[in-house]
Each structure stands twice: as C-alpha cells, then as structure tokens.
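Case study 2.
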Amino acid sequence: MLQKNHNRRPLRPATQMVHGGTMRSEFGETSEALFLTQGFVYETAESAEARFKGEAPGFIYSRYGNPTTRMFEERMIALEGAEDARATASGMAAVAAALQCQVKAGDHILASRALFGSCRYVIETMLGRLGVSSTFVDGRDLDQWQKGVRPETRVFFMETPTNPTLEVIDIAAVAEIAKAAKAVLVVDNVFATPMQQKPLELGADVVIYSATKHIDGQGRCLGGVILSNQDWIDENLHEFFRHTGPSLSPFNAWTLLKGLETLPLRVAQQTVNASRLADHLAGSSKIGKVLYPGRPDHPDAAIIAKQMTGGSTLLAFELTGGKEAAFRFSNALEIIRISNNLGDAKSLITHPATTTHKNLSPEVRAELGISDGMLRLSAGIEDAQDLIEDVEAALAAV
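Prediction:
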C-alpha cells in the first residue's frame, strides 16, 4: 500500500521540488519508487469492479495513471499552484492534447503568431483538417487579440517568452480578453519555467510544459505536462487522455522527478549565465542586436517586470553578417554545443531559421523577426567566465 507524504505546513518551491507528491511503499524507500508496470492486479473480481466503477481508489492501467507518473504530476501541481495535472509523453503531446481535447469542427482558436513551428502546425494544419479555424495575431498587441475574437472562439493560445525571439506577452491582460469572450487561455510556459512565471496566477486557465527542457534539464528523456483546475481536467482532458494515450512512461516520470529536485538551483545559475552572456554580446560590434528578458533595453521590459521573477535562461542575438556569420560563430564554439534542445545543464546554441523554424515560409520568419543571422542560446550551468571566453573566441572567427 502506498502512503502519501502529508506536510503539516506550506512548503516553499525548493522544498516542494525535493519532497512534493512523494508516495512511499511499505519498504520506506528514500528515492521515489519506479513502478515499471503496464497493469495492476486485484485481490478479487469484486475489487476490480469497484475500481473500474470509481468506487474504490487505485490504479487500473498505466495508460490511465501510474504511481510514479502520479508523483511527478503531484509535484508539478504543488510547484505550479494547479488543482490537477496530466503528464504526457512529450511537450508536443501536451500541446496537442490540451488543444484538441476542447475543440470541435466549427470552433476557432486565436493564437499569438510567435510560436514554435510544431505548435503552429498543430493549430493551423492538424486542427484545420478537423474543421477548426485559427487566427494568428501579434501577441503583444492587445487590440489584435480583441479584434480577433469571433463568436465561435473557444481557445486562446500563446507561448511567452516566445521561441526564439523572446517576445513577452501580457498574460493578465490577454486573460481578461479571453474571459470576456468565454474562451480558455492556454499558455506554454516553457521558456520562463515555473520558477520565473506563474500563468495560472496571472489568469491563464491551462499551462503546459515540455518537461524535456528545464524540468529534466540534463538531456535524458522526453516528457510534458498539462496543468489546470479540476473542472477543466475532468470535463475536457480526462476522457481524451484515457482514450488517446499520450501518457508519460513511468521511467521518464521517475527521471523527471529527479530533475525537479535540482530545478531551482539549475535555473538560478542558468539565468545568471544568460544575463552575463547577453551583456557581453551587447558590447560587440559584430552583433546587431541582443534580445534578453533580463535587460532593461528589452522591448517588453515593463511587462517582464510585472509578471516575471527572472530573466529566463535563454537569449537570442543577431550577427550582422547573416547566415554565414551565424554558422562561422556556431562552428567556432568549443564549450557551447550546437543543438536544437534548450533548458539543459549544458549550454546549447541553434540557428532557428534552418532548424526549429525552418518549415515556416521566409515571409512568416521575417514577420516574426527570425533573421538568417539570428542565433538562440540556451545557457547552461557552466562557469560564466568560461562561456564568455568561448563566445569571445567565436566572435573572433566571424
């Protein structure tokens, strides 16, 4: 029998990330138990019937729920301040499930135009084939959100800060517009992490994460999570999740639990490193512009001060020599590695125009501000001075 760890008083985030949601078996294990099982057995046929009818507690099938996966969900619930959550096999599984579970043919989705390419594909192409229309707006322009609302609008969707240009959208203001339209606001919070931004507290209805990024944070596994209030989970996501099966594997859930233990420490160091790199790059004549939410020259500095508690672990910058200069710079790096992932303990860099956003047309990339000279850098936990020296050497090669 699993026993849940009940805390007598509220815990702060760093403590929640070590102890939150923990359930222990009769063996009293220190580390969370890993339950690698598809199914569960019952003492009697009557107990099986009661569990399937919801009259008795317990797990039925790991596609529906698993003790290890539930511990990860519970820990994320504690961190995010949500009522319930469902863990998914990847971040994109979370995006697709969170959107598809609440729309039908004839409905409309209103989304910010600055989105990860796969998110845009889900909204525009995949859901479009099912008869769900969509409109993309400049997320920072509240008038565009207001004017984009239709009688059939059911969902607002945004990521903030955005990938890769790090635009920041006023969540509270957009939440008011969504509420007036009786629409559900879904926020992808992966770039800010739950340590630096709380969308639910700002008025969002649903928050999603690619747990592959900062939550794992060590390049080991895929995962995602959807968090909301109990009613939304029960009425929209619960049955969709059970029958379509985007569930997280217990092994990955266990790995993500281990990642959560060090999330506050990693994000703090990564943010310091990102800030120092941004300031250093801003002083180079070879850099056209630097975009970092922690700098006072960020276009959305006023909103950042209002809704974020940190400047993010990511920065974007533009080399004046275009794609050739961006490639020379990337190839000259020795510590910072070329990878399209982010949020890792290792510093990573990518060229969005030819990787994460390559499927967007040149016109759409230009509209989003993704130039051929732009690079996105995800700061790791290395020594900041080593990273600065690595960047300086790469600039000399441009």
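The chain has two domains: 10-261, 263-396.
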